[in-house]
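Quick entry between incubations.
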Amino acid sequence: MAEPSVITDYLAALARQLPGPVVEELADGLDQAYLSGVRSGLPADAAASTAVAEFGKPHVVVAAFTEAIPARRDARRLLIAGPAIGACWGAALITARAWTWPVPAASRAMFGASLLAVITLLAFASLSRRYRPVRFAAMAGLAGVCVLDASLLAMAVSMAAVKLPLALATVASALRVAYAARGLRRACRVRVG
Amino acid sequence: MRAEELKGHLDGLLLAALEDGPQHGYAVMDALRRSTGGRVDLPTGTIYPALHRLEQAGLIAGSWSVVGGRRRRMYQLTPAGTKALSGKRADWRDFAAIMSAALEARQWPSPA
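Done. Structure below.
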């Protein structure tokens, strides 16, 4: 049976933003709703409109799927924990007089830019309501956290004297990189529909 | 009843809807409507992400089948989901008992 245009238009709107298997599942549910309307005596057009209205506006459905992305929750948690871990590293670097280290200005600038990019990705993943960009930004943000923390940990390992602030910052970063890596692994495993 | 009012309880309702056996998403919504006398007013499309979330949490398991030439995703409770449902039921009974005791202790509105 050919689907009424109101249903195909609705599914096309969802398909622009959601992965294929998700739309396929919604299409089956929408078909059930439509047939239920027809069985209850509604004309085909009215049954289709009722089914679409019952499912909710496409942007509401997309927002609900976006909210359910596990990597989005991980991105939010990393953003919340960021200032505390950043403060640990700040204290460690001040204690170690990091400004006297022979680190090239380009390396410092690159680290700063990377940090800013990762924060932006995590913030976007936490706030946006667009499914695909959120999923991509969250995964890129989690990967970025792993890389940044790995570079901080490598620096900590290379330091001769380990004081309490550095030890605390190292433990915090090690925990964060483990959390981000777990989230990234799960995000890669999760079916996108 | 709107989505905001259901916050925190939707998972329990969905798990309960799957208690009698595997269901597809629309049938879960239908069961939810029937069990609540039609008072749950959620856009059906938003039930699916909640089911996906429960699946990612390991409380339900989803699998594809083909019905009438169309692929259909079916969900069923996992052992962890059955345990979670029991826990949610027990929590709800405790909560309801506490609220009933507190709210019904005196007549409302109180007589002038």
